[in-house]
Amino acid sequence: MADKLIPERKQLLLDFISDPEIKQEQHGLSSGPDCFCIEGAFCEVYRRNNPDKGHWVLNPEKQNCRWFKTPKELPYIGEAPPEVWEWFGLEMGVSPKLKVKGEYLGLPTLNDTKGLTFEEFKKIIGEQL
User: CB of 26 within 8 A of CB of 64?
Assistant: First the structure.
């Protein structure tokens, strides 16, 4: 079972992925200022609340792909950095695994392989984190 998110920060995430202006991305953290995978959504909420502790970096080889960079880490390409998870209250500093249809799966798998929508993530994150 995953750790629990800090309730106020969890609500910031749920509000963010509920915004109709925000589009869901697959196979990358972000492709633009309004398009994110679920881990990219965590990064963007973190960035908006900690503007001096994280920013987006364009992938020099693929202009429609953005990486997330924090002062402590190299740019993260396909996952959120530990600081993001820690800010949300996940002690281990890693992406949580959530139980879906009897299996525990990571957020990237649920987003990219299983194709969960932000609407489905809202329900699962609301219940499990």
Answer: no
Residue 105 pairs in a beta bridge with 98
Residue 123 counted as domain residue? no
What percentage of the chain exceeds 70 in pLDDT?
98
Q: With H, G, I as helix, E, B as strand and everything else as coil, classify residue 8.
A: helix
Long-range pairs of 103-107 with CB within 8 A, sequence gap ≥ 24: 107/38, 107/39
Q: Is the pTM of this model over 0.90?
A: yes
Range of the domain at 11: 7-114
Average pLDDT score, the chain = 92
Q: Give me the torsion for CA of 103, 105, 107, 109, rounded to 10°.
A: -110
Distance CA 35, CA 86 (A): 23
Let me know if residue 71 belongs to a domain: yes
Q: Is residue 64 part of a domain?
A: yes
65 domain-assigned: yes
> Are 70 and 77 within 8 A, CB to CB?
no
> How many structural domains comprise the chain?
1
